[in-house]
Amino acid sequence: MRRLLTGLVALLLLVGAAILWLTQPDTLPPDRFAGLEGDAARGENVFWAAGCASCHSAEGAEGDDRLVLTGGRRFASEFGTFVAPNISSDPTYGIGNWSLEAFGNAVMRGVSPDGAHYYPAFPYTAYARMEPQDLVDLYAFMGTLPPADRPTEPHELAFPFNVRTAAGLWKTLFFEAEGWAVEGDLTPSETRGRYIAEALAHCGECHTPRNALGALETSRWFAGAPNPAGEGRIPNISPALLHWSREDLVAYFTYGFTPDFDSAGGSMAEVVQNLAQLPEADREALADYLLRVAPVQ
Q: Which candidate, 60, 58, 42, places its Cα nearest to that of 50?
């Protein structure tokens, strides 16, 4: 019995050590941003393409209030409710005292300044593909935004999802920092559109179905998915069901009107507000990319 207990304790220690090893935060190389200078004007385009205001401004914010990234929005899911944090320039309640490296690891690797894992409700799985210069420009722009002194609220997650180590295991299984959902010989416009859609605007996070553990099923890219809030369904936007022309898509990204005179609603209305801030060439590139996506029923 003593040998059995000793062996069991040794096995548990080995399992615990393996879990700790597998869930160690994977951070960016320390020289990832070496020699790069941030440009806040370029960073503003990255900000709108990445949809930062859609999650981190206050619920119902309009106009310049969308630039006050106070946090507090609540996002229901089958794993619990995630609450968007304050990412304003406030040094106490926001990210005003973060270094560029800390910001980069948060956005592109899902690792907090104190080494904790962020949950993939924050789409670092897409932002991981962001060009280093775009990240540096975004950091510069974020520093120009107003501070907000609202404390960040904790997520409301049940066990075991409230254990951050679980997020580390999820990363080990599913997080890939490279590669694209749409491969092939793309035109320059389609390539730019892929970068916007897959790395910045993270369109697949809503429009692609997920497996039981919340990872994207990339073989069914843009095939639509259940609404995590439980109301309705997020549509299939692959060419199998979305038969809009390039001009239709660009108009939708600019004004929010569909070819049949409907308008964008819900969270998509905010996405359109973001895309409308981009240069027209970027909206055209996004349309070209969508037309290149493989049709999925």
A: 42
